TrEMBL record:
Similarity comment: family membership: Belongs to the type-I restriction system S methylase family.
Keywords from the UniProt entry: DNA-binding, Endonuclease, Hydrolase, Nuclease, Restriction system
CDD domains noted in UniProt: RMtype1_S_EcoEI-TRD1-CR1_like, RMtype1_S_EcoJA65PI-TRD1-CR1_like
Keyword Hydrolase: yes
Region (Disordered): 443-466
BP-aspect Gene Ontology terms: DNA restriction-modification system
Boundaries of every Type I restriction modification DNA specificity domain copy: 51-166, 255-393
Keyword Transport (UniProt): no
Quaternary assembly: The methyltransferase is composed of M and S polypeptides.
Protein name, entry field: Type I restriction endonuclease subunit S
One Gene Ontology term of the molecular function aspect: DNA binding
Annotated organism of origin: Synechococcus lacustris str. Tous
Pfam families from the UniProt entry: Methylase_S
Length: 491
């Protein structure tokens, strides 16, 4: 543990491994930055090819930061002083086998309980590694275990990679659905066969202003119109934002919706805050009722339709309320505001960088596609069905992710129970490895700086011979220092 490194010429190129480059996964490639030895020979941990590095400081230890040094320039590396450098004894421990053991949940969980130090600077003590029990199969079996882990964990990682790509695919799917819905292509066939007597809402016939002046981001079928958002809402209600200063949070009172309460197009009713009736009464203009459409106007452009349960509630300053006029379906208006083209138009009107804000004057000019009344209902029906399919896939994806996330720790646990590969009676027994360890002399400690103290000469110290229990060797292979069901020994 933490072996001494032989000095090199200052110009010798070595591999530098800062904490950020040390991998978290067993399969992560060992990355490094080439540096001349002169830059890293002092103030860093040193290691060589075949050594296993383990981060000892929080939260890096808990995050599983550990790696096997390989491919280093001139076979030598340097890195953070927050590493333990573990050098497996040649012919006794396979480096990949040791790395896999350091990645097990048992090792990480117990190590986390043994940490010492102040909050934010806790470290795993050296004694934890020195005292930790390591299951020790024959060397050839260690290699077979490591080879099998390489194969199985690569398959698990490939599965994880595919699962990680699904949320982005679902997001693109939903955006494509909204795009098709708001340009008329989603109902093109329906329009040809069912829309002969469908009419636009009556208010379209009035003087609503020219939506093209606001830079309409979409083209629509000839039977549709694009209107300004201010003309898609009830004139007497307008487009308004809510309570500026709701006061302290109350256990009871009038609920109000903040932008953080809108998640995936739905209002999280259980998380709503309350304001007093007095404050709510002063903001009657922004009270909400079933069918109102809410739009986030600070930072995120979230959209949701108000459900029955929130009748008489209110909204915060970060949310605008749009009350659809007769002939405009609330869900259709919400889907229009969520569509990529309208969202992009709204983002282009943002003001401010750190906290983008959308003024109501811009919201009122937003171009909104309006389809005939029956077609609006058909679009909502089809979008709802497709979104329900996406939600179902999302739920199955979440369940699959939970299952696959368990495979790596389960596979590692199985490996160190001796269940991952078959044992070969022809392998050199682990007891021979232990005898080799017990006969090796302890490396002398590094001499302290300053004036040397005079000490009496002492005999070289060796490790005491380990007592091996033959009954503890399954199939004559594993070595154990304990009951027959504990296939482990302190190495």
């Amino acid at each position: 543990l933490n072996p001494k490194t032989t000095d090199l010429a200052d110009t010798t190129l070595v591999g530098f491994v800062p904490m950020a480059l040390l991998g978290k996964s067993y399969l992560d490639a060992f990355a490094f930055q080439p540096r001349p030895w002169a830059e890293v020979k002092r103030g860093y941990s040193h290691f060589r090819d075949g050594d296993v590095l383990l981060a000892k400081i929080t939260p890096c230890f808990e995050n599983g930061k550990a790696g096997l040094a390989r491919g280093l320039p001139n076979g030598v590396g340097a890195g953070s002083t927050e590493y333990f450098v573990c050098r497996p004894q040649s012919g006794v421990i396979e480096s990949r086998y040791l790395l896999a053991f350091l990645k097990t949940s048992d090792f990480a969980n117990e190590g986390a309980t043994r940490m010492t130090g102040s909050v934010g600077h806790k470290r795993v003590p050296k004694e934890y590694l020195s005292e930790r029990v390591l299951p020790l199969p024959p060397l050839k079996e260690q290699t077979r275990i490591a080879d099998q882990l390489d194969t199985l964990l690569a398959r698990i990682q490939a599965c994880n990679d595919r699962l990680d790509a699904i949320p982005a695919l679902l997001k693109r799917f939903r955006q494509s659905v909204l795009t098709a819905a708001m340009c008329g292509s989603l109902t093109a066939e329906w329009r040809d066969t069912e829309a002969r007597h469908d009419r636009l809402p009556a208010f379209i016939e009035g003087d609503l202003g020219d939506a093209t002046q606001s830079g309409s981001p979409v083209s629509v079928p000839s039977s549709w119109r694009i209107v300004l958002a201010r003309n898609a809402v009830q004139p007497e209600a307008g487009i308004v934002y809510g309570i500026v200063q709701p006061g302290p949070k109350l256990a009871d009172g009038i609920r109000y919706v903040q932008i953080t309460d809108i998640v995936n197009g739905r209002i999280q009713i259980q998380s709503l805050s309350h304001t007093s009736e007095e404050i709510a009464n002063s903001y009657q203009r922004s009270s909400i009722r079933k069918g109102d459409v809410l739009l986030g106007i600070i930072r995120a452009l979230k959209v949701a339709v108000v459900p029955d349960e929130l009748e008489g509630s209110n909204i915060s300053r970060s949310v605008a309320r749009l009350r659809p006029r007769e002939g405009v379906s609330p869900k259709f208006l919400a889907y229009a505001l969520q569509s990529p083209a309208v969202q992009e138009w709204l983002r282009s009107q943002h003001r401010g960088m750190d906290m983008p804000v959308l003024n109501l004057s811009e919201v009122r000019l937003a171009p909104i596609p309006i389809a005939p009344t029956d077609e609006q209902a058909e679009i909502v029906r089809r979008v709802d069905a497709l979104f329900m399919l996406a939600d179902h896939i999302e739920a199955r994806h979440a369940a699959a992710v939970a299952q696959v996330r368990r495979l790596t720790p389960l596979t590692l646990a199985k490996a160190f129970r001796g269940e991952l590969v078959q044992q070969d009676p022809n392998d050199e027994p682990a007891s021979v490895l232990l005898q080799r360890i017990s006969s090796a002399p302890i490396t002398a400690a590094k001499a302290p700086r300053g004036r040397p103290r005079t000490q009496r000469a002492s005999k070289p110290t060796t490790l005491p011979a380990l007592q091996l229990d033959g009954a503890a060797l399954p199939a004559g292979a594993w070595a154990a220092n304990g009951p027959p069901d504990e296939h482990a020994t302190a190495a």
